[in-house]
Structure formats: C-alpha cells, structure tokens
Design a protein that fits this description.
The chain contains 3 helices and no strands. With 100 residues, the protein is an all-alpha fold. The radius of gyration is 30 Å and the shape is elongated.
Length: 100
C-alpha cells in the first residue's frame, strides 16, 4: 500500500511540474504541492497509528515465530543433506566391470 501511495505521489508531482512550466497556470503547482504535503502527512499518520494496533503487534509476533521456525527447519534440512553428502563421498567407487 505504501508503494502505491508513493507511486501516485510521484506521478502527481511529475504532472504538476509539467503543468507548472506553462506560465499562465502557476497556481496549479502550489495547489499540487500543498495537496502532496497533506497526503504525505496523512499517510505517515496512518502508518504511525498502524504500529500501535494490537493486531499489528500480534501479526509481527507470528511472523517472527514463523521465520524462526523456518530457519530451524532449514538448518536441520541442510545438516541432514550435508551428512548425506559426506557419507556419499566416503563410499568407495564401484569396481570396473572390465576388471572382472
């Protein structure tokens, strides 16, 4: 959501600057700049409020637990895989069929 807001803001700034190059309509640039400042303040306030919600804190906890569990699973998987790889390298090669 934040990237969409920033993308729209950037687009509006580009449009406002393109319109500002026209000498007869300089009030549009001021209007767009004020609008963008107000929109960025509103978005920042919404993101700040979002951090304080209990649901957000709970979701953050779930995500950190999930990543921790995934990290533990990955380390056990790589440990088993490296053990298999080490044991496979210790097995002598099969005898040549021509030698028999």
């Amino acid at each position: 959501m934040r990237s969409r807001v920033l993308l729209v803001a950037a687009l509006l700034v580009v449009l406002a600057s393109a319109r500002a190059e026209e000498p007869e309509d300089t009030s549009l640039l001021g209007f767009m700049q004020d609008y963008m400042q107000q929109a960025s303040k509103t978005a920042q306030a919404a993101l700040t409020k979002m951090k304080d919600f209990q649901v957000t804190k709970q979701a953050r906890g779930w995500m950190s637990e999930s990543f921790s569990s995934l990290k533990d699973y990955w380390s056990s998987f790589t440990g088993k895989l490296s053990g298999f790889w080490d044991s496979a390298s210790e097995v002598p090669p099969p005898p040549d069929s021509e030698a028999i």
